[in-house]
UniProtKB/TrEMBL annotation:
GO MF terms held by the record: methyltransferase activity
Domain N(4)-bis(aminopropyl)spermidine synthase C-terminal: residue ranges: 96-235
Keyword Transferase: yes
A GO biological process held by the record: methylation
Protein name: Putative methyltransferase
Source organism per UniProt: Cryptosporangium arvum DSM 44712
Origin superkingdom: Bacteria
Keywords: Methyltransferase, Transferase
Length: 538
């Protein structure tokens, strides 16, 4: 009998499954709606549907046959305590905010599976904002969002305009979108595997993150959140796991102790998602309190995601034929000595005996945060960026100063996909590099970008931009000031005043960040301002 089979599933998985059964007796559902409404893993819902068997009504919707629904209600409907949603009354008072966030969510860049993006519902973003407002004094506070595809910072700043926020993300599309909203949000580019950008460190009283749901991803994002806090700050973490896989949940929760984070509170199934059905399309909200020992720099494992080339199971080293072609391209016709760089140690040791010998190796993270050592600048650099999520190529071109540079990327890289993309990248870095794009090299899945150091520009404005491009790790305002002193003959006070006058956004990342941290969409206006800073007659 189907009801007996259903009773067995309820016995194994608990009350939430009973709620699913009763809901199926009331109206029709889609599978995704059932998972999200009751925060039950998809596999468990599928077990319920299988147990119902012939008692399921035919047709496109999932529901119990009308003549059998009363029997299921009689058998499984019980009087139980129902807890009211503590945020329900507050949510009812902000319909305009919910409508606005819904519109923003619809126009935001789509999720990227390779970055473990699963879109939270607009209501979830508003609930997060309301929860923060109910538990913390947001007036004049600063919120750090360590990744923010769900627009939590936007929702919270719309609710409390006196709040300021910083969003750090590797997705350039997202940063451009958030920046376009005109809210009190500083957008900072950063790949957290290579550190928290200095412009975001030690500033926030609150940090929020909904990270990749691997132990490596959770640990890394939490470490970066810790680095972004002022003493006494708190971390809000969205994390969920299926009750079918408690070992994974335990592995993540052990990370809290390893990082010296106390769990001050936990709210089950707080966030809901359009996806993530394996965990019931829901995650818990954790309030984490760092101890005095929690402020420490963390690891930078490159494979932290659950999908694609950057997943925890993926290899991040280039194949031998790619490594060989990359090192040869870097060395060039002059057979320059080559410094190799990749996401993992030894990434280019597979180049083989026919490739030029490496003069040294440098982790990609060290290159990202500090460039190349001075002795290597007279030679060449080969960078294995095969696992580039789409934003590494430009940053490598900014980070490296050398006579030649070769970068291995995927053949479908967005900067190489068409002539327009190639031209845009080439023009952006033209004062520093002359680029050559070699698609399908050495095979159909890979490409190599060759960069040769450009001669000193004749135009004084371009010389200023070249000065800035060559010092991508320095504080941008100071680098720009020094460029005016060196190339335009201004005194330091005159140059500093000129920079302050022409900064594209006085409170933006350009004021106190490095060029490496400036989102891509802001680089064009920045370089235009640098060129315009040349005094008349200079």
């Amino acid at each position: 009998m189907s009801a007996d089979a259903v009773a067995g599933v309820i016995s194994e998985h608990g009350r939430a499954v009973r709620a699913v059964v009763l809901a199926l007796g009331e109206r029709g559902w889609t599978l995704a709606d059932l998972v999200r409404a009751f925060a039950v893993p998809r596999r468990t819902v599928e077990e319920v549907l299988s147990a119902l068997g012939d008692d399921l009504a035919p047709g496109g919707e999932l529901r119990i046959r009308a003549e059998r629904a009363a029997e299921y209600r009689r058998r499984f409907d019980r009087r139980t305590t129902e807890l009211a949603d503590p945020l329900g009354p507050a949510l009812a008072t902000v319909p305009d905010l919910l409508a606005q966030v819904t519109r923003l969510r619809a126009s935001a860049p789509p999720p990227r599976r390779a970055l473990d993006h699963v879109a939270a519902t607009p209501e979830t973003a508003v609930r997060r904002a309301l929860w923060l407002d109910a538990h913390f004094d947001l007036d004049g506070a600063h919120l750090l969002c360590v990744g923010d595809h769900d627009l939590t910072a936007a929702a919270t700043c719309l609710l409390r305009p006196s709040l300021t926020a910083t969003v750090v993300d590797v997705d350039e599309r997202l940063l451009a979108f958030i920046d376009s909203l005109g809210l009190g949000i500083r957008c900072v580019f950063g790949d957290l595997r290579f550190g928290l950008p200095a412009a975001a460190a030690g500033r926030a009283g609150l940090a929020f993150t909904d990270p990749p749901y691997t132990p490596e991803g959770i640990g890394l994002f939490l470490e970066r959140a810790i680095e972004g806090l002022v003493p006494g700050g708190r971390i809000l973490l969205a994390y969920g796991f299926s009750p079918r896989t408690p070992a994974l949940g335990l592995a993540v929760q052990r990370t809290f102790g390893e990082l010296e984070l106390a769990v001050q509170a936990q709210w089950p199934a707080f966030s809901r998602y359009d996806g993530a059905q394996a965990i019931g399309s829901a995650s818990d909200l954790y309030l984490l309190l760092p101890t005095s020992k929690a402020h420490r720099k963390g690891r930078a494992k490159p494979t932290i995601y659950t999908h694609g080339e950057q997943s925890a199971e993926a290899s991040s080293a280039a194949p031998g034929e790619v490594a060989a072609a990359l090192v040869s391209a870097a060395s060039g016709p002059d057979r320059l000595p080559v410094l190799g760089a990749g996401p993992t140690p030894g990434a280019l040791r597979t180049a083989g005996p026919t490739a030029p010998e490496l003069s040294g190796e440098r982790p990609l993270g060290a290159l990202w945060t500090g460039g190349v050592p001075a002795p290597a600048r007279s030679g060449a650099v080969a960078v294995d960026a095969s696992a580039d999520p789409g934003s590494w190529l430009l940053r490598v071109l900014l980070a490296v100063d050398a006579r030649r540079l070769a970068v291995a990327v995927g053949n479908n890289h967005p900067d190489l996909a068409d002539a327009a993309g190639q031209q845009a990248l080439a023009e952006l870095v033209a004062p520093k590099w002359a680029l050559r794009f070699r698609r399908s090299t050495p095979g159909p899945a890979s490409a190599i970008v060759e960069a040769v150091a450009a001669p000193d520009p004749a135009d004084r404005g371009d010389r200023l931009v070249r000065h800035v491009l060559d010092r991508a790790h320095g504080r941008l305002a100071n680098v720009w000031r020094d460029a005016l002193v060196t190339h335009a003959g201004l005194t330091k006070p005159q140059a500093a005043a000129r920079v302050a006058e022409l900064l594209p956004t006085p409170a933006g990342i350009e004021a106190d960040g490095a060029l490496m941290e400036v989102p891509r969409h802001r680089l064009g206006p920045l370089f235009a301002a640098v060129r315009a800073s040349v005094p008349n007659g200079a």
